[in-house]
Design brief:
heterodimer; A: 113 residues; 4-stranded antiparallel beta sheet; B: mainly beta; 11 strands
Chain lengths: 113, 114
């Protein structure tokens, strides 16, 4: 399985600011995804990060709020823009490895105050 | 159709007992069914997975039972240990016109009493 590193691991942010989360994978992967996990909740797919093209967003998530970059096959960033307390969540980078399996990083724990 | 329904929401089991978590799905396009284990402060980790052409898969103390006709699958943890206390998520994956996607159940918080 791929080793996935996320930065920052934790942060406390002021409302109205933006934060960029980085995801680095130790091998080239075709598919990278960003998930959100609100406190005590399940995992919700935000978007698929496409290399060389715009990300594909799920219903309820928009590019202006969650811009995503994927400059190459090992790296992606997710920005949470104009944060509010409702954005306090764990943001998880994941990759597809093998046929149908996805693996997760340790997550970035964001608290918005 | 994209939902994966998971139950129970929480589960308390005595050490040495069997923990059983159930999931159900609607979309027959799902073709891969993984289970993830998540400890507090950590990302979800793949535990075990099954394809729909197999009715059961066992890895150590963990077994998936799969009923394709009923569109249900379950995780059994035999000889449950306190170290198994975690949140478990079932999931269903598909590769279709919308691309590869994995949908997660709501999660089950398991507590194994020593």
């Amino acid at each position: 399985s791929a080793v996935i590193s996320q930065k920052p691991s934790r942060d406390i942010c002021q409302r109205g600011t933006s934060l960029t989360i980085q995801c680095q994978v130790d091998s080239q992967v075709t598919m990278m995804f960003w998930y959100r996990q609100q406190p005590g909740q399940s995992l919700t797919l935000i978007a698929t990060a496409n290399q060389g093209s715009e990300a594909t967003y799920e219903s309820g998530f928009v590019i202006d709020k969650f811009p995503i970059s994927r400059p190459n096959l090992t790296f992606s960033t997710l920005t949470v823009s104009n944060m509010s307390p409702e954005d306090s969540s764990i943001y998880l980078c994941s990759v597809q490895s093998g046929a149908n399996t996805i693996y997760f990083g340790e997550g970035s724990w964001l608290t918005v105050v | 159709q994209q939902q994966v329904k998971q139950s129970p929401q929480s589960l308390i089991v005595q050490k040495g007992g069997i923990s059983i978590i159930n999931c159900a799905y609607e979309n027959t396009a799902f073709d891969y069914f993984p289970w993830y284990q998540q400890f507090p402060g950590k990302g979800p980790a793949l535990l075990i997975a099954i394809r729909p052409d197999v009715s059961e898969k066992k890895e150590g103390r963990f077994t998936i039972s799969f009923n394709k006709s009923a569109k249900q699958f379950s995780l059994h943890i035999m000889d449950s240990q306190p170290g198994d206390s975690a949140t478990y998520f079932c999931a269903a994956s598909s590769t279709g016109t919308g691309g590869f996607k994995t949908i997660f159940g709501a999660g089950t918080r398991l507590f194994v009493k020593a």
